[in-house]
C-alpha cells in the first residue's frame, strides 16, 4: 500500500512540475555530480539551478526560500573564485580536511544560523498557523543551516562538506515526503547517493594527493643528497 501511494504521489508531483523546475532539478543533480569529481563545472551548473529557484520562489512568494537560494548563488560565485585561484607554483586549491578550528567554527555556526533562519521563516510564514505550529519549520531551519555550512566548506574544498550534505539530504528525504513533495523527496534521495559517492571519492583524491606530495618531497630530498654526495665524493 505504501509503495503504491508513493508511486502515485510521485506521478502526481511529476505531472505538476513545470519545465522550469525540471531544468533546475537537472542542473542541481549535475552540480552534485561535478562536485563529486571536484570539477569546476559544479559552480556554473549550480548557479543555473539556484537562479531558477530564486525566480520560482519569488513567483510563488516563498521569500525565505528565495533568500536561501540567493545565498547559495553567492556562495557558488565565491567557491568558483577560490577554486580558480593558483598559488605561486601555479597549483589550484587542494582538497583538505578541516583544521580543528575550522571544524569547531562550523559546528558553532549551525545553531546560530538555525535561529536566524527560523526567525526568517516565522516572519514570512507566521500567518500560516498550521505550518508554524507543526514541526516542519524547526526541521527546515536545521537542514538549511546544515546546507549553508556545507556550501561554505565546499567553497573552501573541505572534505567535511560531504558529511553536512549527507546529514541534510537524509533529513530532507522524509521531510519533503511529509510535505507531499514526493518528486523533491526523490531528488534528495539522488543527492544522498551522490553525496556518499562524493565523500568516498574526495577521501581517495585527498590520499592520492598527499601521496604525490610525499613522493615529491622524497625525490627532492634524494636529489639533494645525491648532489651533495657528488660534490663531496
Please, what is the oligomeric state?
single chain
Number of helices: 9
> How many runs of DSSP E, i.e. beta strands?
0
Structural class: mainly alpha
SSE succession:
HHHHHHHHH
Mean pLDDT: 83
Largest pleated sheet: none
Rounded to an integer, what's the Rg over CA atoms? 22 Å
Please describe the structure with a list of short key phrases separated by commas or semicolons.
single chain; 233 residues; mainly alpha; 9 helices; 82% helix; 0% strand; globular
Topology record:
Layout: H1 2-16, H2 19-36, H3 42-59, H4 63-84, H5 100-125, H6 129-132, H7 136-155, H8 161-178, H9 182-232
Helix pairs in contact: 2-3, 2-9, 3-4, 4-7, 5-7, 7-8, 8-9
Overview of the molecule:
- By secondary structure, the protein is mostly helical.
- The protein has one domain.
- The chain is 82% helix and 0% strand.
- The chain is built from nine helices and no strands.
- Helix 2 packs parallel to helix 9.
- It is globular.
- The model has no long low-confidence stretch (mean pLDDT 83).
